[in-house]
Design a protein that fits this description.
This protein has 65 residues and is an all-beta fold. It contains no helices and four strands. The strands form two sheets. A two-stranded antiparallel sheet has the order 1-2. Strands 3-4 form a two-stranded antiparallel sheet. The two termini are 27 Å apart.
């Protein structure tokens, strides 16, 4: 698994703290990628198969927009 954090450049730093990326590198043994709340708003760009989230115990397919 790859996990990277990159600080925003000086022009974006007043509004963006950092960028991060996680990639399982097609490792089928990785079934869950947990995102822990850290108090910062985040925007996720998911490229690949439909993303599913577990909120109430059941996996729910998120809508593509």
């Amino acid at each position: 698994m790859i996990y990277l954090i990159k600080e925003a450049n000086k022009d974006l730093a007043p509004i963006i703290k950092s960028f991060w990326m996680i990639d399982s590198k097609n490792d089928e043994t990785i079934r869950t990628e947990k995102i822990v709340p850290d108090g910062y708003p985040e925007m996720i760009f998911h490229y690949g198969s439909s993303f599913k989230s577990r909120i109430t115990g059941n996996l729910i397919k998120q809508k593509n927009i």
